[in-house]
Amino acid sequence: MKAAAKAELQDRSALARLRDMLRKLYHGRTPAAFRFQLVAIIIDLAIIGFFIATPVIQQSSSFLWLDYSVAVLVAADMAARLLASNDMLRLIRQPASWIDVFILLTLLMPTALANLGFLRILRLWSMSRSGRLWRHLEMRGLRRWREASHAVINLLTFLFVITGFVYTFFFRSQAGLEGYIDALYFTVATVTTTGFGDIVLPGIAGKLTAIATMIIGISLFVRLAQALFRPAKVFFPCLQCGLQRHEPDAVHCKACGHLLKIPDDGD
What we know:
Blueprint: H1 2-27, H2 31-57, H3 63-84, H4 88-93, H5 95-108, H6 122-128, H7 131-139, H8 146-170, H9 177-191, H10 203-229, E1 234-235, E2 245-246
Antiparallel strand pairs: 1-2
Helix pairs in contact: 1-2, 1-3, 3-5, 5-6, 6-8, 8-9, 8-10
Keywords: Ion channel, Ion transport, Membrane, Transmembrane, Transmembrane helix, Transport
Organism: Mesorhizobium metallidurans STM 2683
InterPro entries: K_chnl_dom, VG_K_chnl
C-alpha cells in the first residue's frame, strides 16, 4: 500500500512539474518562453497555410500523411494548452476551444467531413484570440495596432472561409488550383461589390451566397476602416472593472475611475 501511494504521489508530482513547465512556456515572459511562443506561432501559420492549400493538394498521394501529421500537432497543442491553463473548465468553454476540437475532427476524418474542411481556416481566427500572438507585438511597441490587426484577420478569415465554401459546393468540377482561384476571384469581386459578372454562382443557392457575402464583407470592411482611422486605443485591462480598451494617455479608467498604469510604447 505504501509503495502504491508513493508511486501515485510521484505521478502527481511529475504531472505538476509538467504543468508548471507548460505554464512558463505558454504564458511566461522569459527569453526561453518567447522563443517557444514564436516557434508555436510559426507552426500555427504553417498549419493555416496547409488549410488554405488543402483544396489544391488534397488529390496528391501525400495528402493524408500531411493531414494526420497536422492532426497530431493540433492535438498536442490543445493538450498542452489545457495542461498549462489555471482554469481548464473555463478554457474548454471558450469558442476558440470548440473551433479547435472541430478542426481536429475534420483532420481525423478527412473523407467523412470533406465538405466541412473549408471551416478549418477558422484556426486563423482562434489564433488571433490567443494572448501569445499579441504579446510579441506589444513588446515591440505595436500595441496600438492590435485592434486593426484583429480587423484584418477577421476579414482574411471570412474571405478564405467563403472561398472554401464556394469552391466546395460550386466548383467541384474544376478541381485543383484553377477552381480555387476562380472561387477566390468570385469572393473578392463579391465582397468588394465590384461585380464583374464573368463568374457567377448558379441557382438560388448561388444568389443567396452572393448576398450573404456582400453584406458580411461590407461590414468587415467598415470595421477595418474604423480600426485604421479612428483614434487609437490600447488594450490594458482595468483591475477594478475589467474594461479592456483605454486611451493611450489615460490615467483613470473611464468606467470606474480606477487608477491605471498604462506603460509607454517604449517601456
